[in-house]
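DM from R.C. (forwarded with permission)

"hey, sorry to bug you on a friday — could you get me a structure for this? deadline for the figure draft is monday and I only need the backbone to look sensible"
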Amino acid sequence: MSDVMRLLAATVTDAASAALSYEPVPADQVVAGSPTTGYVVLDEGPSGTVGVWEMTPGAMRDVEADEVFMVLAGAATVEFEHPHSSPIVLAPGSVVRLEAGMKTIWTVRETLRKVYVAP
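My reply, with the result:
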C-alpha cells in the first residue's frame, strides 16, 4: 500500500473547511505579531502536490518554492525582497505564481487560506 495521498476521482474535497495542523511561525521568520501556519496535502503524485495552506494574522519572512496558488479566504499583502518587485494584495480569488528562491514578507490582516499546486 502506498503512503502517497490521492484525491478520489469524481468526488468533491472542500478545501475551504479542510482540517489543518497549525504550528507557530519560527521566531527567526516572524516580522510582526504571533502568526501561525497550517497545511494539509490533498494530493501527491508524479505531476506534483496539491494542498491547502493557511496563515493567521501577523507578518513573516519566507523563501518560496515553485507554486501556483489561489486564495480562498482572507486578506494579505506579499512584499518581494528578492528579486525586488512591487507588493501584491491578496483577496479571495487572487491567483499567483511564485518561483523557487523568491524572498518574501507575508503580512496577513485576515486569516489567509489558499490552495496551492507545486511541482
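R.C.: lifesaver. DSSP finds no helices and nine strands in the chain.
me: no worries. The chain has a mean pLDDT of 95.
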